[in-house]
Design a protein that fits this description.
The protein is mainly α. It is built from nine helices and no strands.
Length: about 290
Amino acid sequence: MMDKQEPNAQDQAEGTTTDGGNGHGKAKGQDSRKRRPGKGSKPDKKSKGVVLPPNASPMLLTFADYSKTLTAQYDKHERIVKLSRDMTIQSKRLIFALHRMNASTKAKALESADEDLQKIFGLIHQIGKELKDEDPLKFGYAYSPGMQEFIEAYTFLEFHKTGTLAQPGDIEAAFNKDSEAPFALHTTDYVLGIADLSGELMRMCISNMGTPEIPLQIRQFIRSLFEGFGQLQKVVNHREMGKKFSTMKQSLEKVERSCYDIQIQRTEVPQEKLAEALTMAAAASAE
């Protein structure tokens, strides 16, 4: 009985193996199986769209149309979001410029604010073009943050000019003027925008403590807003209403506390030194 022939050194060096003496072997490092891409594999960047075969079924063609429609809506949504961000930036710049305004620079600052407002109108006109032949509510969450910030800036500017609250119809007419694709101002955006207005008025009150008439006017204005907002909270169903109402209440409390300090100072400090004392008190409270 003969012993099994063992592989010689040359076979071991070449990496061959014997299988039942048939002489067929595989080299090391070679694998005849095709590798399949795993979960972490990246798709080919060149294949951006769906390539349909010439004999595609009607169902495949239908879903290809769905894909094109959804992609177009997604791209439009992203463009509107970008315009909304630009509106937010421009509106904040307008608000900050109004806070830096004083009695000597008021006329020039208001003129500059009107120019900044026209830039925001231009962004709204672009949003209107994107919403043409579309349901605005479908893209409401895309432009609502920028619209709320715009309402806050517009009403803050109107308060500086007239001391009154800008009405939604007037605002809508203002930004739709000379627009190729006008659209309606949503009531929720207007309500949430004027809720943020209370915070800016509170800052204006603190910075003008040296002029008692301004804080007293602001207190009356915010109180009227607070009373009306309390009634709207029962009607307007929005997730931010509770938070906005709480913030408005805090702003009103700070303004009333400042007006209370003014009344106390009037009884304790001579009239000629009242402005200086109120300014020092406001600076201390800000710290």
